[in-house]
From TrEMBL:
Protein name: Cytosine deaminase
PANTHER family: CYTOSINE DEAMINASE
Annotated Pfam families: Amidohydro_3
Annotated ranges, domain Amidohydrolase: 40-399
Species per Swiss-Prot/TrEMBL record: Martelella endophytica
A GO MF label: metal ion binding
Class of enzymatic activity (EC top level): hydrolase
GO BP of this protein: cytosine catabolic process
Length: 432
């Protein structure tokens, strides 16, 4: 006898009419027409059951701080950094924790149960680190939260930047971060990459580096990151986030660079919403859009994972915690619109992101944790198109968020009286 059976579910791999049995907080069986008893049964009625969404790149210490101390008038990355520098001295642990927990509530409602957040270590007081460590502990029952020690003002450029980052790691931060393109010189940037990878190797930690978040095609710190990854034996444990300079590099150089990234087994983490908002700000027309070469990276076998990056903070005034919104934008800006492209894009916010974070027990396989999301859509293609309601969000076999299906009541002559808003491409209701 199982604790729960979800019947008649569609899965991301295309299987339909599947039953998912759950026992002891784990997936015990996945098969069609499962004959078994359970304490509870949920009928998915042909809707999509997905593993939870994963955000591999976020800034939870800044989230929901929009307008503090003022708005970003230019909309640029650099003004956002300057604004954060003005806000940082006023931060308190209490306010940081309150905003972060509010965001985590939103994340759960969106089926987002795994987040890697960068935590600014530039202020020697490390108020942000203290707060995010508290948040990590508080949300542990429902969100897996990884923390990155992130020297926002530069590992070398910030006063006491080196010592502050090391103290953050001593306090229990999980991952070594960096921002080489924000150092004073290209040489300092390269040196910071080498130093930070060495620290990670010595401490047995992973690396997640803001890398080349710029329109400058000569910002090539990803090349150094690949080399240092191999030098220190960090393959599979390193992420290069943003990589926006690659959109401006010449094709010959990229033909050399992508194999280096693949050799180093670096995870590439673009952030579609933020990258197209912040990049190309100095262009007139033609205007660059800032996304790295997602299609080419995927074709080379590189693990590509999409991050949300920001929600209502000095860099981005929008955002909803919805990874389907991130993927929806990626489809447009990468022009990856085929059925197979969209399936690959869906992987970028689920299984690929889980791989980038090194998550164990993730995914729809027997023996894995019963962390699931039921969406008001039939398949991943419709989920990406509609960004539908998360009808059920489940953690270890327990429902932690639930909403009713969205149904429109219609008053149209000769037409049905209602419409399931998870409709299919023909415009007919998804189910009778």
């Amino acid at each position: 006898m199982f604790d729960l059976i979800i019947k008649n579910a569609n899965l991301p791999d295309g299987r339909t009419g599947m039953d998912i049995a759950i026992a002891g907080g784990r997936i015990a069986a996945i098969e069609a027409n499962l004959v078994a008893e359970a304490a509870e049964t949920i009928d998915a009625t042909g809707r999509l059951i997905s593993p939870p969404f994963v955000d591999p790149h976020f800034h939870m210490d800044a989230t929901l701080s929009l307008g503090l101390p003022r708005m970003n008038v230019s909309g640029t990355l650099l003004e956002g950094i300057a604004l954060w520098g003005e806000l940082r001295p006023t931060l308190t642990v209490e306010a940081l924790v309150e905003r972060a927990l509010s965001y985590c509530d939103l994340a759960v409602s969106q089926g987002l149960l795994h987040i890697r957040t960068h935590v600014d270590t530039s202020d020697p007081k490390l108020t942000t680190v203290e707060a995010m460590l508290e948040v990590k502990e508080k949300v542990a029952p429902y969100i897996d939260l990884q923390l990155v020690a992130f020297p926002q003002d530069g590992y070398y450029r910030a006063k006491d930047g080196e010592a502050s980052l090391n103290r953050a790691l001593d306090m229990g931060v999980d991952v070594v971060g960096g921002i080489p393109h924000f150092e004073r010189t290209m040489d300092d940037g390269a040196k910071s990459v080498a130093a930070l990878c060495r620290i990670a190797a010595e401490r047995g930690l992973s690396v997640d580096m803001h890398c080349d978040e710029t329109d400058d095609p000569m910002s090539r710190h990803i090349e150094t990151l690949a080399a240092e990854t191999v030098r220190h034996g960090l393959q599979g444990r390193v992420a290069g986030s943003h990589l926006t300079s690659m959109h401006s590099m010449d094709n010959y150089y990229v033909s050399k660079l992508i194999p280096l990234i693949a050799e180093a087994e670096i995870n590439a983490i673009p952030n579609p919403l933020i990258n197209i908002m912040l990049q190309g700000r100095h262009d007139t027309y033609p205007k660059r859009r800032g996304m790295t070469r997602v299609r080419e990276l995927l074709a080379a076998g590189i693990n590509v994972a999409f991050g949300h990056d920001c929600v209502m903070d000095p860099w981005y005034s929008m955002g909803s915690g919805d990874m389907l919104e991130v993927a929806h934008m990626a489809i447009h800006v990468t022009q990856m619109a085929s059925i197979e492209d969209k399936k690959a894009i869906f992987d970028c916010i689920t299984v690929n992101s889980a791989k980038a974070l090194g998550l164990d027990g993730y995914g729809l396989s027997v023996g894995n944790q019963a962390n699931l999301v039921m969406l008001q859509a039939e398949d991943v293609i419709e989920a990406l198109r509609l960004k539908p309601a998360r009808l059920i969000v489940m953690r270890n076999g327990k429902v932690i968020s639930k909403v009713e299906p969205k149904v429109a009541a219609l008053s149209l002559p000769g037409r049905p009286g209602s419409l399931d808003c998870g409709f299919n491409p023909t415009g007919r209701p998804a189910r009778d």
